[in-house]
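are you around this afternoon, could really use another pair of eyes. what follows is a protein written twice so to speak, once as letters and once as structure tokens for the fold. i want to understand how the tokens follow from the sequence so walk me through it. anything you notice is useful, everything is just below.
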Amino acid sequence: VIGANRPEDEAAARMVLGRDHVRWMDQGPPKDALADWMVVALEVHEVRAFRSEHDGIAQALREARMQLFHGFIQSYSPPEGPPVGPPLPTTIEEIQPLREARSQFERAHIQAAVREWGSLKDASAALGISYTSLWRRLR
């Protein structure tokens, strides 16, 4: 006889029949978990869309730069504003050996750091190289 009119037995019967003893692995409220998942899914979707758009624009820019470099584009007017990155060679004769191009880039980068920090010592610390290396690369 279930319960047998004893309070302990009735509580035990209610627990077994009511399934309060069953514990699910994921006990969080399902609506909160779904809302969190939807926020993450939306962010992933936005990042993927941005990445796809960025890849398309970057590919178009690479193609345009190569066409300009090889002379397929004759008339080009650059956009307004300061240039971004080192200037590109416009003819094949202007291409420097890699060693000279790297040295030129290093000098320009070091000079910008010296202008920013105000001294060779501070610039060398900011660039993570020794003072003598900085001085040698400026020559």
Q: What stands out?
A: The chain has two domains: 28-78+85-92, 96-139. The two ends are 100 Å apart (CA to CA). The mean pLDDT is 79. Residues 96-139 form one domain.
